[in-house]
Structure formats: structure tokens, C-alpha cells
Amino acid sequence: MSFISTSFKKQELHDPGFLRFIFGNTAMAPLWMLARLYLGYQWLIAGSHKLWGGDRWVAVSGPDGLPLKGFWEKATLVPASGKGQISYDWYRSFLTYMADNGWYHWFAWVVALGEVTVGICLILGVFTGLAALGGATLNFNFLLAGSASTNPVLFVLAILILFGWKVAGWIGVDRWLLPALGTPWQPGVMTRGVEDHLPLVGHHGRPAGPATAT
Amino acid sequence: MEKTIALLLGILAWVAVGAIAISVVNAWRDDNQVLAFLPILAAVVAAWGIGEVVTARVFTAGEEK
Q: A43 vs chain B: nearest CA distance in angstroms?
């Protein structure tokens, strides 16, 4: 069984230089900014249609979320002959459960606000990685529901931005926000004080507490 | 005081970017996405530029003293 300990011994595998350059070098920030703005703009447009557009999903005179209910019903419909839009039965059951229990009333708000938030955060470069993850999650669910549209392209773009999260928001608020809050490679200006007061470990991994003379 | 004003200026610049983005989306919708993209791009670059200049003059210069 020694091959197991050999195979899984602790060792760090490093990315090749060109990948580190693309996904982690600030020289690539302008390219990531363009990708981020395009994706953010697409989400903002989509969210604006649902949140305050003419055919909005929420804040209407009648019950909220009726278009979402229609989308779910269309997606979960299985024709007498052939297959429905959704490939996975568990996902069809999930949408059917939400539609049957009237979840579309509040879920329409989640989708509309989520899309606008993702769009704004990507445009401003606020928590860019998390915003891209949120966008990818929305794309993923639309794709599972059988709606292709622009989702495949936006999904791939979101995943790429997720890989490049360290520099994707460099020409954006993350340029100042991440150093203030702290990153895996540098303790944050705002959180440094908190780390110093942690009971066991101070910042930079030093043991906290009173110094002892040796 | 100088740092507070600089911080507020930076926040204001990025809030303006958000306002411009929403205004542009409201004005053009899907009609001309290329045209709508340009003001947002310009606003982001301008806000970032303001942030860089302010950081260099107020915060970094203060640390060097």
C-alpha cells in the first residue's frame, strides 16, 4: 500500500507560466475588463427587462412571477411522443415542485434581482469572482431547463472570468476592495486588526499572545 | 480629512459608473449594444483613473512620508 502514500503525498502542482500570465497577471487586466463589461452588460439588460422593463416579472399589477411560471410550465412539459426540454428527471421534478407550490411569486424576484446584481457587480468590478460565479449559476440553471439562447457563451465567459478573478476586477472596485478586505496572498487592511485579536494565530501565521523571554 | 475626501471621491466615481450603466441600459436596451458599451467602458476607465491618481497622491504619498 505504499503506492498510495507515494501518490498522495503532499506536493503542490504549479500552473505553467502562460496560464499564470493570462489568469493572474495585471498586464492582462484590460482584456479581462472588456470580458467583464460585456458579461455584466448582458446580465444588466436581461435583469432590467425582468425588474423594471415593460414585460417585467415583478412589481406588476397582478401576481408577481407569472412569466416565470409560464417558463417553468413550458420547460417541464413532456409531449406525448418524444422528449421534453429537460433531460434530467430530477430537475424536472424540482421545477414542477416549485411551480406547483407557487414559488414563482418570490423566485421571480430572486432571478430578477440576481441578474441585475450580477450585472452591476461585473460592470463595477465588485467581488468579480463571486459575481461571475453567480452568473454561471444562473446560466447553468437556464441550460438545465433546456433554454440555450446566449447561455452557453455567457457560461463559458463567466467560467473564464472565474479563473481570472484575481485580475478581472483590477480595473474596477476590486483593485481597492480586495486589498482592503484581504486576499489569500495578502492580509487585508481592514481585517488585519481582527486577525491580530484572534486567540491563537496572529496575522502572517504568528502565534498571538504575550511574548515570552527565552 | 484628506483621506476621507479621497475615499468619498472614489466611492462617488464608482456610484456614477453604476448610474451611467443603468441609464445607458434604460436608454438603448437591446437596440445598439456596441453604442451602449462605449459610455460604460469610458466611465469605468475614468473611475479607475481617478482612483489610481487619488491613491498615488493621497494614500501612497502619505505612506512614503
A: 11
